[in-house]
Amino acid sequence: MKELLDNKNSALFSKDFPIFYKNRIQKTNNRDRYFYRSAVDGALRNNQVRAVGYIIDHIVKHQNHHVSSFLFQKNFPDLLDKGLDVAGLLRSNIFCFTFDYDEWPSTHTDHQPYSRPYNGSVFDLRHSYRTVFHEDKFQSKGEADEEAIDSSKVYKVSYKINMLPMLGEYVQGSGPDKEMINEGQSIMDMCIQSQQQKPS
After folding, report:
1. Model's pTM, two decimal places?
2. I want to staple 13 with a disulfide (CB 3.0 to 4.6 A). Which of 34, 53, 62, 139 is the partner?
3. What is the pLDDT of residues 110-138, one digit of tens each?
4. Would residue 115 be called left, alpha or beta, if left means φ above 0 and alpha means ψ between -120 and 50 degrees?
5. How far apart are CA 132 and CA 24, in angstroms?
6. What is the CA angle 83-36-74, rounded to 5?
């Protein structure tokens, strides 16, 4: 694994064509059902801790995008249990979804950072600006209002979603297809327990 993911091969790596992704595998006992597994899952199942470390380093360096976060959705507790260094993973853009939708204002007169909860689907986010920022001061300005604003006091806005909460317990799906993911897992508890297990 180390040789394959070595920096001397970096010219062959592309963000457009990731090496690590989830494979769809048909269940043996029910041919109509599938499950998904990645190389990270396989290496963890076989206790190949060093290989998982190389894979994580590669993903952080060459697949540093929120799409790769799904590789760690169910196995993050195992990474901590095995003592793997996840600092680079947490500092990367893998658990940070930056977006720029036409339906969301790109400038504002307020330069303060704001944090808001969002529990809906990422796919519905495009049309959820008024749900997330419901206060009057965040309403979009009309053309008449924009002309009255001093252009030197207009700031570029960037929007980001922290995707770390998906590592803890949450409900996926709706109606009869609801499924509890990572049941009983708390990201904060995992981090605290991981710190306590490290030798001093």
Report:
1. 0.73
2. 62
3. 889 999 888 788 889 999 999 999 998 88
4. beta
5. 34
6. 35
